């Protein structure tokens, strides 16, 4: 990229937003969720949707575009990484053998993120599959204070860590998207 992209947003109401409030699928006019578990799940759902929104409208090459050398980070790499992380979190729930990594060696989730439409489709399918599997596994542990797995980690800690992981990577996605086409916003 030889020139910096012009900064832009689709929002017309507030220029620093990604979309107008009436068009934001994350907005809810009703009361907030009741209870700690529902609150954590709501925040997680919001960050998951934010990541998808930051990827919308880009082609395979744009999704695989790296930030700046020497970083291997890309939007597609983030999608692959979060699928890998979802799978890894399930391994904390019991003392059984962990599932094999989706993408192989350390950082293969980022290194293998190439601008191929089939790779993009596979990455989003893997993310959805791994999210659903981890959600289902955690649903079997409704007591947030319960200690699980060989390390005795609290279910609450796993849920908070998931929210933290998505939030951090949504921040990366903001910068990556701006690098690709200049689009900015919340």
From TrEMBL:
SUPFAM superfamilies: DinB/YfiT-like putative metalloenzymes. InterPro entries: DinB/YfiT-like (IPR034660), MST-like (IPR007061). It holds the Pfam family MST. Residues 16-37 are annotated as: Disordered. It comes from the Bacteria. This is Mini-circle uncharacterized 19.1 kDa protein. It comes from Streptomyces gougerotii.
